């Protein structure tokens, strides 16, 4: 962002970029207010350009008849042009600095925020680090109890722009207006949750071709879906092997197969102790006795869902010279050296708890730092890692762009939905997708299917699997 901004700024008249940002911001605020004239708007203003954006937007609203007051956190270092514009437009200004530099915001500011219809958070944007400082933190705390709509400028102040971490107090916004491109902090939890809905304002930047973080869209997924052609047969489409389930958890096998049948492979082979349950539900499954090594040929393996303590199946699968997806119990049973020694691709699909166990850190650490956790796991195991949870991330071992899934929904937090995902992703691997594509396309379809299956009401994992064809069709339109 900074590089792209510098290049563009050098070619444009001074302040042009900020005016574009402010115009987009003001338009969104006006839309949220409905009636601008007579509305009460409070601007929270830090010392940088983020505050400048907010001040210019505030000036636009004041010219349309809003009562606008700017609360300055650094009265001596406020963006001068923005402040002058607000004053010219008839806006008011007050200090937001706590009496002793920390603690509570001034009483007058508390009252202002209490009466506001809309608050614009221009405390800090991409220039901030380390959570809000003690002088700014009380303002974020005040917003939590306010009835006003909170609009964050570029990012909710206090979240880490590059990682999605939240290191201390941060603003919780209803909506964030961001400029140029989405920042990781708007896409990855926990920060994502602070942003509310996100609106992107194009300010004319030329962005680098390769980003640190990528989010597939419908067209990207459609282009990666394995579709049968005239020359296809079931073997050419790919056979996926599922080594899952146990006497205790036969359902995991059924659910993994249900995902695999809807992932584009031409056939699904099942090995394990839940063959009867699988056949009863899905008669098209090729069930074989004996371990993975004695099953027929497959183009990819899925091992682990509900597998209990069968370490031998995991070892046999890891020894196979085809792409392998390791999930759930398989992650616990897999030997790290055996994973690292593999020459065919490996895709690991831990949730935060499993990732924490693999990294030797508490679960909360993984949840608080998803991006670095996924990258670190991928690096340590020399594998592609799909980290499940509120935000699903897929990281390759080579450190290239990480894929963030934009379709997830909390309705997916239901037992067995991860088993569906692993079957689905394994099927895509068997159909020839790279682990990065298989993982991110699977997460995308799975998220959509979760939304379709739930549609505002709880859905079980089997409902998610049954909604996968609808997700395919939706993506292909
Ligand atoms: N460049 C452009 O063309 C365009 C840029 N745009 C906009 O500019 C924004 C970036 O502006 P920026 O670089 O001035 O930084 P910014 O985010 O305002 O914060 C820096 C100030 O905050 C302070 N501060 C730091 N950490 C803090 C903390 N934890 N808690 C509290 N305060 C903290 C720190 O203060 P200091 O350390 O000096 O005391 C510093 O002065 C960007 O997000 C976008 O909105 C758009 O207009 C489009 C065109
Ligand atoms: N809060 C959430 N928001 C979005 N998706 C979630 C959330 N919690 C869990 N998920 C998704 O639900 C699935 C759960 O998988 P997993 O944890 O393996 O459960 P199980 O082992 O019961 O199948 C994953 O795809 C995960 O990304
Ligand atoms: K902000």
TrEMBL record:
Keyword Metal-binding: yes
Residue sites binding K(+) per the record: 50, 121, 157
Subunit structure: Homotetramer.
Pfam assignment, any one: Carb_kinase
Binding site residues for (6S)-NADPHX: 49-53, 125-131, 154, 252, 306, 351, 419
Cofactor: Mg(2+); K(+)
Protein name: Bifunctional NAD(P)H-hydrate repair enzyme
Keyword NAD found: yes
């Amino acid at each position: 962002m900074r590089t792209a901004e510098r290049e563009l700024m050098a070619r444009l008249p001074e302040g042009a970029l900020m005016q574009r940002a402010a115009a987009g911001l003001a338009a969104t605020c006006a839309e949220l207010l409905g009636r601008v004239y007579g509305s009460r708007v409070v601007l929270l203003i830090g010392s940088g350009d983020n505050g400048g954006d907010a001040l210019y937007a505030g000036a636009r609203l004041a010219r349309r008849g809003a009562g606008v007051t700017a609360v300055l956190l650094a009265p001596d270092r406020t963006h001068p042009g923005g402040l002058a514009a607000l004053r010219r437009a008839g806006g008011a200004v007050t200090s937001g600095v706590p009496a002793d530099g920390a603690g509570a915001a001034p009483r007058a500011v508390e009252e202002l925020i209490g009466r506001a219809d809309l608050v614009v958070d221009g405390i800090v944007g991409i220039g901030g680090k380390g959570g809000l400082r003690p002088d700014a933190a009380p303002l974020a705390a005040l917003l939590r109890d306010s009835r006003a709509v909170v609009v964050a400028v570029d990012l909710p102040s206090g979240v880490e722009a590059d990682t999605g971490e939240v290191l201390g107090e941060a603003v919780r916004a209803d909506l964030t207006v961001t400029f140029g491109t989405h920042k990781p902090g708007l896409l990855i939890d926990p920060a994502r949750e602070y942003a509310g809905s996100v609106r992107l304002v194009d300010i004319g930047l030329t962005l680098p071709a390769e980003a640190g973080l990528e989010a597939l869209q419908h067209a990207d997924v459609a282009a990666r879906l394995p579709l049968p052609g005239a020359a296809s047969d079931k073997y050419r489409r790919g056979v996926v092997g599922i080594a899952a389930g146990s006497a205790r958890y036969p359902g995991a096998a059924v659910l993994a197969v249900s995902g695999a049948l809807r992932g584009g492979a031409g056939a699904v082979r099942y090995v394990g102790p839940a063959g009867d349950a699988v056949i009863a539900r899905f008669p098209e499954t090729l069930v074989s006795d004996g371990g993975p090594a004695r099953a027929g040929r497959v183009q990819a393996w899925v091992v682990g869902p509900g597998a209990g303590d069968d370490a031998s199946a995991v070892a046999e699968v890891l020894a196979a010279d085809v792409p392998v997806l390791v999930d759930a119990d398989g992650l616990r049973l897999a030997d790290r050296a055996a994973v690292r020694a593999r020459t065919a691709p490996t895709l690991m699909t831990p949730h935060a708890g499993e990732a924490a166990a693999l990294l030797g850190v508490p679960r909360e650490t993984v949840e608080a730092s998803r991006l670095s956790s996924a990258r670190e796991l991928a690096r340590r195991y020399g594998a592609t890692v799909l980290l499940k949870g509120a935000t699903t991330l897929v990281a390759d071992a080579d450190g290239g762009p990480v894929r963030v899934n934009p379709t997830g929904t909390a309705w997916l937090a239901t037992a067995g939905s991860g088993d569906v995902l692993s079957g689905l992703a394994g099927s895509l691997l068997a159909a020839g997708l790279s682990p990065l594509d298989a993982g991110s396309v699977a997460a995308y379809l799975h998220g959509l299917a979760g939304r379709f299956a739930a549609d505002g009401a709880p859905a079980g994992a089997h409902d998610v699997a049954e909604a996968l064809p609808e997700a395919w069709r939706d993506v292909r339109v």
